[in-house]
Amino acid sequence: MKRCYDCPRGCGAARDDGAVGICGGAKHARIAKIIDPFEYEEPCLGSVTAVFFGGCSLGCSYCQNHKISRGGAGEEYSDDALAKVFDGARGAIDLVTPSHYLSAIERALPLCKRDNSFIYNTSGYDTVDAVRRASAFTDVFLTDYKYADSDIAHRLSRASDYPQIAVNAIEQMRKTCDEWTEHGGKRILKRGLIIRHLVLPDCVQNSIAVIDDIARRWGTDVVLSLMSQFTPNGVGEPSVRLRKIEYKVVAEHAVKLGFKTGYFQEFCSASSAYTPEF
Ligand code: SF4
Prior knowledge:
278 residues; alpha/beta; 10-stranded mixed beta sheet; binds iron/sulfur cluster; 10 strands
């Protein structure tokens, strides 16, 4: 009986035989929403086709998409149907929270009738082996680096091992060199890596430690996306809003370190307008 160990939770669910993992994933990929075209917060990704998967292997308490990450929203797609979704996309396919469906995506790819471009939009809670497998079809890794502090990782995501897991995963993602192109007068990242960090309320020291770690390990050439769009989801912690001063302190720290390519969100992005309806 084949068991699933595709993510660091390593729960071993026999998904091919009908079991459901801790992530909420069964054998086939569950898609909660497809948005085409979808404009990213990072303009260098251009216009994409976003495929939002249901379930999640990390499961943060403050998840902005909690209706799909923890609720059962969405429909199951057979491998063939998933391949058709990929072939029908107008732009690069943005796989949103794909880690727990890596096996389903791998099964669908040989069924595709054309060569597709993929963005692997992940929480960073990925095994090195999973990143290696994803590298076989991924053009751009768009990963979070959420926590450098294990206690916060445990409290908000039940994953005290997150810091080390994410560092190892990003180390593997960084092996793809950044490759840029021009489209419609815009600079587009064709291949490579973007590291996102969402600043959370009452967690400034964690954010500073994450930014320091990124600069120290991967240099200030890496594309950094610093996000302020946290909004309490009414379900889990944190239940307070991010303060402007907290975001300012972290953003100024990133500027001081000298990151060359990156994005800062306007503070007014801390609004549910950035959360798609499911
Ligand atoms: S991907 Fe899901 S089923 Fe597989 S190990 Fe992780 S939590 Fe378990």
